[in-house]
Design a protein that fits this description.
Largest sheet: 8 strands, parallel, barrel
Order of helices and strands: HEHEHHEHEHEEEHEHEHHEHH
Shape: globular
Distance between the termini: 32 Å
CATH architecture: Alpha-Beta Barrel
CATH superfamily: Aldolase class I
Radius of gyration: 19 Å
Helix content: 40-55%
C-alpha cells in the first residue's frame, strides 16, 4: 500500500530550494546506506539547524531494503525532534540517480518526497521524454523531481562514466521548459567517487559554465553532484592504518562555497563520508586488534562522520547551518 511522504513528516524540496537560492547557500545532499550514517547526518544537521536531503541511490535502496528505509526516514524526523528540543529540521528523502520511470514510481509509493531521474546517458530528446514522464507522475503527489543534463565522470555505486560531458548552457532553458523539472543537475567538472583528479592536475570546476546557465534560467535550482573534497588528512589516516588510496583527490571546498553562493542550492556529498567512516574504523582495527564489538568501531565511525558533516554545513562550505 502506497504511503505519502507527508505522513512520514518529510517535506519536498520546493521551499527549501527557494530559500537557498535567495539566501546564497546550498542544502546538503548526504547519501546513506545504514543506521550509523543516518544517525550522524541527523545529529549533525539538527545540532547545526541545517535543512537536509537524505539521499538513497538505487543500490543503497536494495542494500537497506525499501520497507526499512521508509521507517528509517520516519524515525529520522522523530529523532531530529528528540534532539532538537521538539522541533525537527526540514528533511527530504530523495532518490539519487533513479534510472527508470518504474524505480521513481516505486520510491514515491514508499514515501520518498523527491526523486531524481537520470536520463543523461540517453539522447537529448529521450532524456526529455523520460524526465517529463516522471515529472507528470510525481507532481500528482507533490513530489519534486531532479533531472540531469551532461554526464559526470567517475564511479560511485551503479553510476559510472569515463569522461565528462559538460552541460551545454544553450540546452538548459529548453530542457527545463519541456520537462517541468524542479531542479537540474549539471556537469561542470565535478566527478563521482574519491578519484576525481590525478596528482598534479589542477582541480577546478567550470564556474564559467555555471554562470552562463544562471543567465539562461535565473533563480532556477541547480544541483552539483560529485562534490566531495576528499580531505587529504583522511586519506593519510586510511593509508596509515593499512589502506591504499594514494591518488585520491577531490574538489576544493573554496570552489564549492563559491558555487553555493549562486543558484547551486543542492550539493551532493557521499565519498567524504565514506572516507571519514573508513578512517575511523581502520584506526580501531589497527590499534585494537582484539576488538570485535561492532558498536566499538561503528560508534567512532559515526562520530567522525557527524563532525565532518557539521563542517560541511558550516559557512566555510555550504552555508546551510542555522537556516532550518
Amino acid at each position: 500500500m502506497a504511503v505519502s511522504y507527508k505522513d512520514l513528516g518529510l517535506v519536498n524540496s520546493e521551499e527549501m530550494f527557494s530559500k537557498a537560492v535567495d539566501g546564497g547557500y546550498a542544502i546538503p545532499g548526504f547519501n546513506f546506506n545504514n543506521m550509523e550514517q543516518l544517525q550522524a547526518i541527523i545529529q549533525a544537521c539538527t545540532e547545526s539547524r541545517s535543512p537536509v536531503i537524505l539521499q538513497v541511490s538505487k543500490g543503497a535502496r536494495e542494500y537497506a531494503n525499501q520497507t526499512l528505509l521508509r521507517y528509517l526516514a520516519q524515525g529520522a524526523v522523530e529523532y531530529s525532534k528528540e534532539i532538537g528540543g521538539g522541533k525537527n529540521v526540514p528533511i527530504v528523502l530523495h532518490l539519487d540517480h533513479g534510472d527508470s520511470f518504474e524505480t521513481c514510481v516505486s520510491c514515491i509509493e514508499y514515501g520518498f518526497s523527491s526523486v531524481m531521474i537520470d536520463g543523461s546517458h540517453f539522447s537529448y530528446e529521450e532524456n526529455i521524454a523520460l524526465t517529463k514522464k516522471v515529472v507528470d507522475y510525481a507532481h500528482k503527489y507533490e513530489v519534486t523531481v531532479e533531472g540531469e543534463l551532461g554526464v559526470l565522470a567517475g564511479v560511485e555505486d551503479e553510476v559510472s562514466a569515463e569522461h565528462h560531458t559538460y552541460t551545454r548552457p544553450e540546452e538548459v532553458e529548453d530542457f527545463v521548459k519541456r520537462t517541468g523539472v524542479d531542479s537540474l543537475a549539471i556537469s561542470i567538472g565535478t566527478s563521482h567517487g574519491a578519484y576525481k583528479f590525478k596528482p598534479g592536475q589542477k582541480a577546478e570546476i567550470r564556474l564559467d559554465i555555471l554562470r552562463e546557465i544562471e543567465k539562461r534560467i535565473p533563480r532556477f535550482p541547480i544541483v552539483m553532484h560529485g562534490s566531495s573534497s576528499v580531505p587529504q588528512d583522511l586519506i593519510a589516516k586510511i593509508n596509515r592504518f593499512g589502506g591504499k588510496m594514494e591518488e585520491a583527490i577531490g574538489i576544493s571546498e573554496a570552489q564549492i562555497r563559491e558555487a553555493s553562493k549562486s543558484a547551486v542550492c543542492k550539493v551532493n556529498i557521499d565519498s567524504d563520508g565514506r572516507l571519514a567512516m573508513t578512517a575511523a574504523i581502520r584506526e580501531v582495527f589497527a590499534t585494537k586488534p582484539s576488538e570485535f564489538d561492532p558498536r566499538k568501531y561503528l560508534g567512532p565511525a559515526r562520530n567522525a562522520l557527524k563532525e565532518l558533516y557539521k563542517h560541511k554545513v558550516s559557512d566555510e562550505v555550504l552555508g546551510s547551518a542555522g537556516k532550518a
